[in-house]
Amino acid sequence: MTTRRATPLAGQPARKSARRNSPAASGPLGEDRSPIPLYHRLYVILRERIVNGTYRVGETLPTEAELTETYGVSRITAKRALDELAGEGLAVRVRGRGTTVTRSGALRSGGGPIAAGIDGLLANLSLIGHGTSVEMQSFDYVTPPPDVIDALDLPAGALVQCAVRVRHLDGSPFSRSTSYVVESIGRTFTEEELTEQPLIELLARAGVELARVQQTITATVADHESSRHLDVSVGSPLLKLLRVFYDADDRAVDYVEMLYRPDRFEYRMTLSRGANNRFHMDPVEAGKA
């Protein structure tokens, strides 16, 4: 007789294991009773890590057994999530060798850019900066991921100032941002100043005249790291904004990835017809109390 091991259901804790206290463990994906299938939530988390460069070209993804252990899902769920990645061309699965990230997968990015009205956007960013409190998670000078190097048009091995911040509104977290500022500009302000002042204002103080912003808006789900900082369950939906800021000479100076809780943040756009009979966008960002 074959013995079948029960799979954790929504609202039930995952089985105990020797790796339960491992830093890599993310906890069960079914804790928030989401209607989204477990395999799809696991697939989205892995896909996001491929797209953002956490898993590089040629790197082997966690095995079905490791995913089962880490996320408290069944082997069938883990297998289906990996099969979805392979079916999309993000990875290739070879028996005995595991699941490997493909070059096309590592180069994948979500959505196209939206040309935001620069004046209104900067004003709103400054307003949000002054109306919230900041918790600095990390601050250092690092070699950024390949997609950031490409976006900022930097040579291989170049350093950038990398800061990870969690913003709070009325005592609760609503966003987590990771900013990459080119080194020459980043050296003009300190970690303490970035905690106390909006980055937009520090860039202006450094003499940077921002002329345009390239922006991508998409959706993602919370992984272990973002779920902890934003106080949501693993697999919960998040709004993701990617922005590249350009100066008056059209040089990229800052790359920012922002994750927002959709229950505490909204992004609204007003389209107005101009004298040239073309519509112009006036974005409005708002944190919800």
CATH class of the largest domain: Alpha Beta
Task: Return the average pLDDT rounded to an integer.
Answer: 77
Indicate how many domains the architecture comprises. Answer: 2
Specify the biggest β-sheet.
7 strands, antiparallel
Distance between the termini: 56 Å
Q: So how many helices? A: 10
Spatial strand sequence of the major β-sheet = 3-7-8-9-6-5-4
Share of helical residues: 25-40%
Assembly type: single chain
The CATH H-level superfamily of the largest domain is Chorismate lyase-like
What best-fitting shape do the alpha-carbon axes yield? Answer: globular
**According to CATH, what is the topology of the largest domain?**
Chorismate lyase
Radius of gyration: 21 Å
Q: Based on DSSP secondary structure assignment, what is the total number of beta strands?
A: 11
Beta content: 25-35%
Helix and strand pattern: HHHEEHEHEHEEHHHEHEEEE
pLDDT < 50 runs, ≥5 residues: 1-27, 109-120
Structural class, by secondary structure, is alpha+beta
The CATH architecture of the largest domain can be named as 3-Layer(aba) Sandwich
